[in-house]
Amino acid sequence: MDALKCSSTFLHHTKHLNTLFSNYTFPTPNFNRRSPQPLSLSAKDKRIINTEPENVAVVEKPPPTSHRFLVSNGLPSPFGATVRDNGVNFSVYSSNSVSATICLISLSDLRQNKVTEEIQLDPSRNRTGHVWHVFLKGDFKDILYGYRFDGKFSPEEGHYYDSSNILLDPYAKAIVSRDEFGVLGGDDENCWPQMACMVPTLDEEFDWEGDMPLKLSQKDLVIYEMHVRGFTRHESSNVEFPGTYQGVAEKLDHLQELGINCIELMPCHEFNELEYYSYNPILGDHRVNFWGYSTIGFFSPMVRYSSASSRNIAGRAINEFKTLVKEAHKRGIEVIMDVVLNHTAEGNEKGPIFSFRGVDNSVYYMLAPKGEFYNYSGCGNTFNCNHPVVRQFIVDCLRYWVTEMHVDGFRFDLGSIMSRSSSLWDAANVYGADVEGDLLTTGTPVSCPPVLDMISNDPVLRGVKLIAEAWDAGGLYQVGMFPHWGVWSEWNGKFRDVVRNFIKGTDGFSGAFAECLCGSPNLYQGGRKPWNSINFVCAHDGFTLADLVTYNNKNNLANGEENNDGENHNCSWNCGEEGDFVSISVKRLRKRQMRNFFVSLMVAQGVPMIYMGDEYGHTKGGNNNTYCHDNYLNYFRWDKKEEAHDDYFRFCRLLIKFRDECESLGLDDFPTAKRLQWHGIAPETPDWSETSRFVAFSLVDSVKREIYVAFNTSHLATLVTLPERPGYRWEPFVDTSKPSPFDCITHDLPGRETAMKQYRHFLDANMYPMLSYSSIILLLSPIDDS
């Protein structure tokens, strides 16, 4: 959930969800229970026969029983449902509940809002500290589970216990509700049908075929941000199961051809795409939560991204996600997950109760003294990340995805929330001992956040990619300042803003643009490296690359919010005319600008990130906040990609290949004067003045000898004098002012010699003409005296 300068309006949830929750009442399923167990609000664990203190006689409750399963005490760890000893151990943390019941639900009963069997847990046998646990043996085929908890329902004290709710286990490895993406559930067409957790079995073993972590050096990554459903949902994808993990796996060869070696998956944890389901009269379809930044279960993959239809859909989702990872690894592509550990789909006090709020609300969420929800996420609630229980939950979750699902790293949405102090923050709560003067207000940023400390020093997680979106909706902006322990990288939002402004010809950005080309040492020098900067021009939030050069103003009417959502400050330029129907000269300029942006991304130190579809020029019609569209706005157009295959796609592919070949474009450290020289219109005379729109540099490269790169973002053409290199001549490799295929001149390009002759008289004079709004890359070639 990106934000230009952390403007909360750029976060698609903020205004929309707060409005939603104030107008919408979430249905609570009315279950027809079989053999209901009596639920007590008493906090006592035993039935007292004689209450006289000196003559207390205690009669133990009989142990829990079941018609279908053998029941025993179980163990308090690990949390969740765990197969062991020919049975399943269930364990869940709930510090403020007074009773707990495990609900077993067959798949057929789930569809009818019925509970198959309930087993009320005995506090004397099935509770250790604040952990409820039970061990069951029996036939779990097609059996799901959930919990009922009882206790206070007192929102002003932070408690929402209600035994009528069947709750999801926070540690559930898969969650089952509806079968098909975007389709209402049940006969009552409920947007929030009852959900239940998958019971694991040993039958779900997956053949990894020896898959191991790729452990690619981060400096060598080219990241591709993508949406699982959007990547293959369009009919032109021609895959067997469009919009699924399997569909993505089938299209991985496209990414390999492009040169991508790391995919960043937009949220793949279980979420409810019907969360704000409503008719959209503008497009004639329904608004849904397409992006998925509203998590229901952090351990569960999004089940409706599976190709399965009904039976064993949860197990299939797990295995198909694993297959996607395995197939990516076979092609040398790492997999990073976008995780939303800053809030959940339960929203504010008007939101639904399906898991964390009903299990232990005051533990999992940041609460004000009277029970109100802090809203640093802009989505109604804030995950209480630095609470001891919650931070262990987060570490357990991340470890699971690394060890069990083989993912290679994480991008943390609104990661700055993880640096905020938890509810009831004090030294005793966090560290186990009092420190005088350590009391902090809930949500205050802290310099050494315990959860980030745990992640950074965890023996499993320290070796994976950790990327923070270093801001949140509460105004905290930490780009360049995120607590990092030497291992965290950041989405560099400042890179995006500076590059957008410089390329479109805004005065005053030449020096800042040069900093970006060096890997932003102004932000990351001193404890970090260039590759800690994740450089991007476009991401899922905001304009696509094609729209960035087509629209000055957003066009979000299709979102149904009267164009009030989405960011207004986009640093975009339409190249002289607004929209698609423009003159030929404007279209040509737009093509140059798209190439200029891509060149800047590929020649900058740091890690480049590309947004899905930008490699062929995908347009969303000027909509910069397409969170709610399950349609062509968000679908990758494979037919359009084929049209651009020998044009812009070719350019992108060759630039990525060039970056990979150049030793100097993925440095371990920031470049110095020994390797880098800045130039202006004349060699070694850079112009950093306020009105300068020209930046050029040469870079010594052990593979290419030396490369020369220049950007002219003025509206005027210029003649550049090149640095002298005795015995060598500069030859053009990239010139964005040329039509394809001469925008990138490779050695095997038909007509290459003819094209080179057109430059020869300039190059013999050690000069090069640059059109307005163009960029070039030149390479050294030995002079052949013959």
Automatic annotation (TrEMBL):
Q: Which residues cross the membrane?
A: none
Report the enzyme's class at the first EC level.
hydrolase
* Entry's Gene Ontology molecular function annotations: isoamylase activity
Signal sequence coordinates: none
- Give the SUPFAM superfamilies listed for this entry: (Trans)glycosidases (SSF51445), E set domains (SSF81296), Glycosyl hydrolase domain (SSF51011)
- Superkingdom assignment: Eukaryota
Q: Gene3D superfamilies from the xrefs?
A: Glycosidases, Golgi alpha-mannosidase II, Immunoglobulins
Name the predominant localization.
plastid
- Please give the catalytic activity noted in the UniProt record: Hydrolysis of (1->6)-alpha-D-glucosidic branch linkages in glycogen, amylopectin and their beta-limit dextrins
From the Swiss-Prot or TrEMBL record, give the protein name.
isoamylase
The organism is Eruca vesicaria subsp. sativa (Garden rocket)
